[in-house]
Design goal:
Length: 287
Amino acid sequence: MDTVYKYCGANGLKILRDLELKVTPPNQFNDPFEFTPKMGYSDPVGYAKRNLQQESVLLKWLYERKRAEGKFVGSFQEFQKQASAYQTEIIEAFVNVLPLGAAQAEKDFLDEVSKRFGLLCMSQKRDSILMWGHYCDKPLGLVIGFDKSAAVFQQEKGLRLVNYVKERVAFDACWLAGSPELLKYEEDVILSKSDAWLYEEEVRQFFTLSSPSLTKRPLEDKTTGYFLPFPAEAIVSVTLGPRCSPELEKDVREILLKPNFSKVRLDCAVLSRNGFIIEFEPVKFTL
């Protein structure tokens, strides 16, 4: 059985009690580079020619400039009829503003994606000192182990390995819909992270936020939270932090004594005496 792990603070109790995992829109992640591809244009002139008919704003700008220079005195409608005479100039103007458009698109992309999609993120390991420190309330929390093969983790495209890369994912606005390049990009932007995060050994599951598999409700900060319900049988282990409080340990024990958690292994993370290593010791189910 392959196990994947969720590092938790005290909120791990809520996961155990409610049997649901949070699915997070990417603009709420710690990594500021998530879903921020490097955008560009391999054929800016060709792109301009394909899109000029939709750029009435650009045509309006050129019309105003011609009027200010005294080179055109008619109405905008008349200018539109003669626009073909200014085609080269219009294309040049369009190409000149593309870098500004790319910069704005990079800023907007993350928020646009986050309106529609979210991710469930876990790790392949439970002994990362960094993650115990970052995500478990400075080792006060716990780590929950899940059976990766459980049906709940096969939904959408299932849990998938993250690729750690040195360069940002590139998006070329000149790619055509359905092209192999665009399809590859759609995979890469979901599964790629800076190799600075390599130690996390992350796996992630991509969800459409409107999916019937998710439940949603308002959070304390008045934003909407999205949650993936799962059966108790999907949990295989709970690991208490090396500085877990007696109160938290007692609460975890009480939850795991319920019949639907009968197969869950309870253990405790301990600090190795011989190095900077997290080790694990079994804990008995007694109160």
